[in-house]
Amino acid sequence: MSTESANLTLDQAAAERSLRPLWDIYDKLVAYEPRPACQPALWRYRDVRPLLARAAREISTAIAERRVLLFKNPGLERPFTTHTLGCGLQLLLPGEIEGSHRHSQAALRLVVEGDGAYTTTDGERIWMKPGDVITTPSWTWHDHGKTTDGEMVWLDGIDVPLVEFLRATFRESAPGGGERRQALTRPDSDSHFRYGCGLLPLDPLPASLHSPVYAYPYERTRDVLEALRRASEWDPCHGIKLKFSNPLSGEHVMPTIAACMQLLPRGFETASYRSTDAAIFSVVEGSGTVWIAEQSFAWEAGDVFVVPNWTGYRFATAADAVLFSFSDRAAQERLGLWREDRSTSSAGGASNSRATGARR
Fold first, then answer.
1. Strand locations in 30-93 (E)
2. What's the whole-model pTM score?
3. Which uninterrupted H or E stretch holds 26?
4. Which residue ranges make up each domain of the chain?
5. Inter-residue contact 145 to 50 (CB < 8 Å)
6. Which CATH number fits domain 41-170+190-200+213-341: 3.20.20.140, 2.60.120.10, 2.60.40.10, 3.40.50.2000?
7. Rounded distance, CA 338 to CA 356, Å?
8. Given Cys at both, which of 192, 215, 317, 327 links 277, Cβ 3.0 to 4.6 Å?
9. For the segment 214-261, what is each residue's pLDDT rounded down to a tens digit?
10. Which tens digits make up the pLDDT trace of 97-133?
């Protein structure tokens, strides 16, 4: 060791060589339990919708790659909704086309209002109806269009922050700036009829990390929820909650994003619950209240709210409610990191038992 180095403190000598003592920061890096990365927040549809209509008047699809207003979490510096997911509302006017592109990020859409619009994914056109859930897996070509009068609004969810953190982002637009719509190479909603109706082709099935089904119609989802309501299969924390799945494997629809739909009947009050995934909720039907840690938020159809990771929450409903939600649970499960805790006595309360990796 040089004389000059010997005259420095250990921290200074280490810093000169781009070293950092772990013992100074160990508790921050390896905490006893997760620290929430974002804040509870709610956006009211009745407040956002007029701004979205104004954006449609002032911003054309020729200017914007996608006309979307993002839900920026007040606890995050970047314009993301959670630390791993972004979310926003998109509006399309009659006759508009949003050109074909693809990217590393996986995305999904929940249709909020309107008709006569479509998404085309890898040559398959999918017509949109309110409540439908549509997926756009990583690196699939996709474009959108509107063929009828009136406005079309849907919720976009995308794993931009997660992919950006991994520095794995790629994007590609339609080659040569040519036709903005991709060619239709399969019948409309082909993937739904081929893989999503409880029947599968006899031929060998394609290997894929994501579901081969690109659309999950709300009419069918609602029927399933009602059937389970009649069977009284109520979970104390979730009511009736189902995940959208890959019919070939039973896994989540995409490797980075889990998507769910749940039914909470009028007057239902859930027990408190928390898990390691921060979740984004969108209200499809009904009204009620959610308590997240120490805060309460009243919600109604169209509203969007965020529950941070490892933060207790519970619901009470004023009317039959259907909630769509999505999170990075799929990625956490694949990495063996996901946990839930059903032992909190109140929203945000202390845990009375160890969180489990699977529901008991």
1. 41-43, 68-70, 86-92
2. 0.92
3. helix 26-29
4. 41-170+190-200+213-341
5. no
6. 2.60.120.10
7. 9
8. 327
9. 999 999 999 999 999 998 779 999 999 999 999 999 999 999 999 999
10. 999 999 999 999 999 999 999 999 999 999 999 999 9
